[in-house]
Amino acid sequence: MSPVVKSDAGAWKGPEKGLGPGNSAFLNVRQVAEYLQLNEKKVYALVREGAIPATKVTGKWLFPRKLVDRWLLDSAHGGLLADRLMIAGSDDPLLYRLVLLLAQETGSRALVAYSPTGTRLGLKLLQSGRADLCGIHWGPDEESETRHPALLKQHDGHRRWILVHAFRREQGILVRNPPASGMEELLRPHVRWALRQPGAGAQRYFLEVLSRHDLAEEGLNRTLTAYSERDAAAAVAMNLADAAPGARPVANEYGLGFVPFGWESFDLAMPREIWFRHLFQRLLKWLRSAESRALAERLGGYDLSRCGELTWGEE
To answer: Mapped to the 3 state alphabet, what secondary structure does 112-131 carry?
Structure first.
């Protein structure tokens, strides 16, 4: 959403004019409304949508002056001038390696960072403006076209978001040695599980698989909680657990066995303006590159045939 920043006289009020007391680092609702030439009701609406940087202190909304200026710049230029790309959400070894390549390419000219938080927390960070991009996966691939938009619609500001397909990924169980009888043997009471945190896409898909076997999470021998794909794989590799939900490329990365149960769609959610950001376009170029396909082949469990497709975005 691009705010209206013209006054009746057609002149834009810059940071040095009309902002109230001195050089205060924070502005109140009235001051921000004056700055943006909006009414206060509209400012509150932007806050509810998570569209404008704000913090609540003793019941009152305050707006960091520098972040409001940066937000205006991003809005006015579609993020073209931004020098950062903060990625949150689901963990993935291919995406992680591509972020490293992009970081090396940009050097000290920009900040590219990846924090694997899990799907739901990543979307909350996207909503609050603390992340620019969020990786998500939420169940079987064949249902992703309805599930992923429905998940986004639970967040304020989703009307500004779009979904870009990154790849399909094989999901299953990480083990040291695959059992001869498959899934059934892993569901016995003695098997130690490293399960994922609530809100993780791997946990969501796994709980659906459990329900097919008439089991619930409480029926498993849970020994620890893993907060990322690699955290889960490390727990199994270090013999802290016998099994954990995760993706095939992570199993291969750690030299583990793998019991598959389905494919999922790994998508990237972002505000529309991030699509135009130079750093995202560079990441997309890496994702579509021959290097990316070679990496995916080595890791295994990927399908990049629809990489980069825009799958959802409300008008």
So the answer is: EEEEECCHHHHHHHHHCCCC
